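Predicting structure from sequence has reshaped protein science. With that in mind, we have picked out one protein's residues alongside their backbone shape tokens:
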Amino acid sequence: MTLFETWLAEAGNHRLRHGRPLVSLCYAQSLDGSISERRGQATALSGPESRALTHRLRTLHDAILVGIGTVLADNPSLSVRYAEGSHPQPIIVDSRLRFPLTARILQTNPRQPWLAATNLAPPERVAAYEQAGLTVFQLPGDPEGHVPLAEFLDQLAEFGISSVMVEGGARILSSFLRQGLADLLCVTIAPRYVDGLNVIDPPGLGIKFPEIIDVHYECLGEDIILYGRLSREA
């Protein structure tokens, strides 16, 4: 993954040029494009070698971002366990502030998560999180009532975040792709069929996605790793 690391090394310059962090989409899928068997259910797809790679990539990013659906389904720690290096800042996009204060991340990650919500989130929930020591970002919701990702990225840049690794779930990954906010892609392809939740969610909206350029492949264990850059001109 030397080339991917070279791209990531440009994150600081990217933030200065564009005013927002460099964004990597890093996730695992089956041969048929499924990232889980069904919505709200965690499905292990990666082998041990590619799992170690994922944790290595975490150490190379300033922050790691997931949606609240991933937290509720997987209860992840979002920490680094299978590689040497620093823990990235965990960020959870949670428009309505459903994050449970019993989540595993609060006990297993040395860094407290940042929560991104809209300004329609209940004030009492905001107060409870802040009392628990969590940082809550509130932004005006987009037309669908979701956190406006472009504006949130701008805020992250102001906080010194130069690179963000987006791991899921499907709606968050799809949103970054559809809005042209992703710069790099690293996909672990597991040699199995799942017939489950596709990474493009919801499907069939007819939106043109970015083109993947500088595509490279490598094998890790039984998995195939595909990585490349995403062209904003597609």
Observations:
- The helical segments are 2-8, 11-18, 48-59, 68-74, 105-108, 123-131, 149-158, 170-178.
- The first strand starts at residue 22 and ends at 29.
- DSSP finds eight helices and eleven strands in the chain.
